[in-house]
Amino acid sequence: MKQKLLDGKRQLEEKDDSGSLACLSVRFALEFDMASNFREVACKQIERHMRLCLATTTGCETLVTFSGSEPLLAEAASQLMQGSMVNPVRHLANHSDLHCVDRGQRGELVAALILMQARDKAVITQSPMERTRWASVSSFMKALLPETNYKALERKKMTSWRNGEDKPFR
């Protein structure tokens, strides 16, 4: 799966713009704007990096593309990005085709990056014997929040609960 995502390569390299865009697209469901070289970037992703084309207009003036939501593909992208010495934020910030990526009107891409980094941190901090693809709510919140805020959250009671479950967050 990793080699298919990277067009035959075994690992993600720092200067591999199209490979990093493919990994980021899978992990963050990146959408492309209709920028000047959008078609070139989108076509390369479709041809070499497992991006899917849903529709096109006559003459291929407009392409509707997306990354598949295949769990094994997402896991491969996650492992490639973790194996890379550069974190996902740096890959995205240094990407030459960033102007083609729709960042959202209210910072949705930044929010997705923050949440994904918290998820990765929560999964990585598990012991090797219990490491899974998912993270508990508690470990996710611990990875997402600063330590003082997380400790305050642990002491707080929920706003609603079932009978007999009036307990703090922890």
Task: Outline the fold blueprint.
Elements: H1 2-5, H2 17-28, H3 38-48, E1 51-56, E2 63-67, H4 71-83, H5 88-93, H6 108-124, H7 137-144, H8 147-155
Antiparallel strand pairs: 1-2
Helix pairs in contact: 2-4, 6-7
What do you see in this structure?
The protein is mainly alpha-helical and 170 residues long. It has eight helices and two strands. It has a two-stranded antiparallel sheet with strand order 1-2. The longest helix has 17 residues, at 108-124. The chain is elongated, with a radius of gyration of 19 Å. The mean pLDDT is 80.
Q: Calculate the terminal CA-CA distance, rounded to whole Å.
A: 38 Å
Radius of gyration: 19 Å
Low-confidence stretches: none
The SSE string, one letter per element, is HHHEEHHHHH
The total tally of domains equals: 2
Concise structural overview:
The protein is mainly alpha-helical and 170 residues long. The chain is built from 8 helices and 2 strands; from the N terminus they run αααββααααα.
Can you tag this structure with a few keywords?
8 helices
